[in-house]
Amino acid sequence: ISSGRSGHETPRGHFNVMEKDPNHHSSLYGDFVDGSGRTVRAGVSARSQSAPSGTHFAGASMKWFLRLTGEGVGMHIGILPGYPASHGCIRESVDGAKLFYDHAKVGTSVDVGDY
Predict the structure, then answer these.
(1) Dihedral through CA 47, CA 64, CA 1, CA 17, nearest 10?
(2) 32: helix, coil or strand?
(3) Rounded to an integer, what distance in angstroms lies between the CA atom of residue 32 and that of residue 40?
(4) CA distances from 18 to 8, 25, 73, 113 (A)
(5) How far apart, in whole angstroms, are the C-alpha atoms of residue 96 and residue 34?
(6) Domain count along the chain
(7) Residue 3 lies in a domain
(8) In this structure, what CATH number is given to the domain that contains residue 71?
(9) Residue range 56-68, pLDDT digits in tens
C-alpha cells in the first residue's frame, strides 16, 4: 500500500466502509483539461487552484473506491512508490483493491494503523 504523505497523513483508527464506488473520481485532486480532453495542468488541487481559461477540473480516477471518512479518505487503486505518497487515502494494488472491493460491504469494519 501507499498511505498519506507528510502533511496529508492517513488517519489511524477504527472506521466502517461508508460507500462503495467502482469508478470514483476525486472531487479535490486531479487535472485541468481543455475541451478536447488534453491535460493542461496535472496534479492540481481544486481546493486551492483555479482552472485556467478554457479548461475544467477532471478528478483523479480512484477505481474500486471504499470511502472510510466523510472527508473523502478511502481505499482505492493507486500508484505504489514504496513510501507514503497519497493525500490521505490508502492506495492499493489492482488485485488488492479489487479483492477488498468485492468482499467488503457498506458497514464493514476497517482498522487503520501501523502494523
Answers:
(1) 80
(2) strand
(3) 6
(4) 20, 16, 10, 19
(5) 33
(6) 1
(7) no
(8) 2.40.440.10
(9) 999 999 999 999 9
